[in-house]
Write a structure and sequence with these properties.
By secondary structure, the protein is an alpha+beta fold. It folds into 3 domains: about 110 residues, Translation, Eukaryotic Peptide Chain Release Factor Subunit 1, Chain A (2-Layer Sandwich); about 110 residues, eRF1 domain 2 (Nucleotidyltransferase, domain 5, 2-Layer Sandwich), CATH 3.30.420.60; about 120 residues, Ribosomal protein L30/S12 (60s Ribosomal Protein L30, Chain: A, 2-Layer Sandwich). Helix content is about 45%, strand content about 25%. It contains 11 helices and 16 strands. A hairpin with a 2-residue loop joins β6 and β7. α2 packs antiparallel against α3, α5 packs across α6 and α8 runs parallel beside α11. It is globular. The two termini are about 40 Å apart. The structure holds zinc ion. Zinc ion binds next to loops.
C-alpha cells in the first residue's frame, strides 16, 4: 500500500544528481505461480542496463541487485509492484499495488513517476459511508484497496415502544435520537476527512437517513458527495470496494469526455488550448500549460537540450532555443509531465474511448494553456 507521505517523499526526492532506479512490474496472480514476474523484472532491468553507458551501468548494479533480492524474498500481493532505489542517499521504497500498472524500468536523477501519476489520477481517494438510523460504517478506498475505519451504533429507541407517552411523543423522541445519531456520523466523517483527505464521498443506506445525513453535512463535505445509493449495512468489504470502484470509473470516464470536448472546442475556437505534441512541448517550454491531457500508454521520443533542457520532437543536432548540444530521449512523456508539474500545472490521463479520441484528433496529447 502506498501512503500519502511516501508519495510526497517520492515526488520531492532530491538525490543531488545521483540516479534512482524506478521499476514497475506486472505481478498479476496468473503470473505468480511460476513466479514469472521475476523473469520479467530481470529482463526489464537488463534491457535498461543495455541502454546505459559504462559509468551509469556500474552505478545501476547495486540497485539492481537490491531490487532483485527484494523481489525474490518477498511474497507478492496485488497486481503490480512499484519500486524505487537510490543507495548512495539511502533511499528505498517498494510497494505492492492492488491495481495494474504499465511495466517500465528507468534510471534517472529523479524517480520515474508517470505510471504512478496516472494511477493517482484514475483512482481518486474516496470515502464510503454506510448509514441507517442507528448505525454507521466508514471506509476509505484508494488505489484499489479498501480500509474500514470506525463503525458505531448509537442508542435509538424504537418508534412504537409501549409506555405512558402518547404516540406523538414517541415519534418525536425517536426522531431526536436519530438526529443525534446522524450528528455523530457527520462528526466521524469530518474526522476521517481531516485524517485521510479524500476527494469523493459516497453515501449508502435507506433513503431517509441518507437524505437527512446529506442535508446535515457542512458545504465543504456535501460538495464532495458523488453518489448515493441504497446499500446494506452488513455488506462485505469486497462489495463496498466494488461499488466505490464502479462509481469512480463512471465518474472518471464522464469527466474525461467532458474535458476532451472542452479541449477540442477551445482549440477550435482559437482560445487557450493546444493540440499535438509539437504545440504542447512549445507551451510547456514557455511554462504556459495549465492542464496537460495525455492518452494512456502514450510513447513519445525526441531530443532534449543538455544546456537548457528544451524538449523537441525533431532530429536536429542543435537546440532551437539556445544552440546547445541535444541528446535523444525516449521518455518524452515523463519529461514533459515533469516540466508541467514544476511550473504549477496539472495532469489528466485519459483512458478508453476518450483516450482513443485524443489520439485520433491530437496525436494523444493536448493542453489547456494559461494564455494565448
Ligand atoms: Zn537549449
Amino acid at each position: 500500500m502506498l501512503r500519502r507521505r511516501e508519495l510526497e517523499e517520492l515526488m520531492s526526492l532530491d538525490t543531488g544528481g545521483r540516479p534512482v532506479l524506478s521499476l514497475y512490474v506486472d505481478i498479476r496472480p496468473q503470473l505468480q505461480p511460476e513466479r514469472a514476474y521475476l523473469a520479467a523484472a530481470k529482463s526489464l532491468l537488463s534491457d535498461l542496463a543495455d541502454t546505459l553507458d559504462e559509468d551509469a551501468r556500474e552505478r545501476l548494479e547495486p540497485e539492481r541487485q537490491r531490487a532483485q533480492g527484494w523481489l525474490e524474498e518477498n511474497r507478492p500481493t496485488g497486481r503490480s509492484l512499484a519500486l524505487f532505489s537510490c543507495s548512495p542517499v539511502g533511499f528505498w521504497q517498494a510497494h505492492y499495488l492492488a491495481v495494474p500498472v504499465r511495466q517500465h524500468a528507468a534510471f534517472e536523477t529523479t524517480p520515474y513517476l508517470t505510471p504512478l501519476l496516472d494511477l493517482l489520477d484514475e483512482y481518486e481517494r474516496t470515502a464510503v459511508v454506510l448509514v441507517d438510523k442507528e448505525k454507521a460504517r466508514l471506509f476509505t478506498v484508494f488505489l484499489g484497496e479498501i480500509e474500514e475505519h470506525k463503525g458505531f451504533k448509537d442508542f435509538v429507541p424504537g418508534k412504537h415502544d409501549q409506555g405512558g407517552w402518547s404516540q406523538m411523543n414517541y415519534q418525536r423522541h425517536h426522531e431526536e435520537h436519530v438526529y443525534e445519531h446522524l450528528k455523530d456520523v457527520v462528526g466521524a466523517i469530518q474526522e476521517l476527512q481531516r485524517d485521510q483527505a479524500w476527494d469523493r464521498l459516497i453515501l449508502s443506506g435507506p433513503e431517509e437517513p441518507v437524505t437527512a445525513l446529506h442535508g446535515m453535512l457542512p458545504e465543504s463535505l456535501s460538495g464532495l458527495v458523488v453518489d448515493t445509493f441504497p446499500g446494506a449495512m452488513y455488506a462485505r468489504d469486497s462489495d463496498v470496494l466494488r461499488w466505490a470502484l464502479d462509481v469512480n470509473e463512471r465518474l472518471e470516464r464522464e469527466a474525461e469526455v467532458r474535458l476532451l470536448e472542452e479541449l477540442l472546442g477551445t482549440a477550435a475556437a482559437g482560445h487557450t488550448a493546444v493540440q499535438g505534441a509539437e504545440n504542447v512541448l512549445d507551451a510547456a517550454w514557455q511554462a504556459n500549460v495549465q492542464k496537460l491531457l495525455l492518452s494512456e500508454g502514450l510513447d513519445l521520443s525526441g531530443t532534449q537540450c543538455e544546456a537548457c533542457g528544451h524538449l523537441d520532437l525533431s532530429e536536429r543536432d542543435r537546440c532551437p532555443a539556445c544552440g546547445g548540444k541535444v541528446a535523444r530521449v525516449g521518455d518524452m512523456v515523463e519529461r514533459v509531465a515533469h516540466r508541467v508539474l514544476e511550473a504549477g500545472g496539472s495532469l489528466e490521463f485519459l483512458h478508453g474511448a476518450p483516450s482513443d479520441k485524443l489520439r485520433e484528433t491530437s496525436g494523444g496529447v493536448g493542453a489547456f494553456t494559461r494564455h494565448l
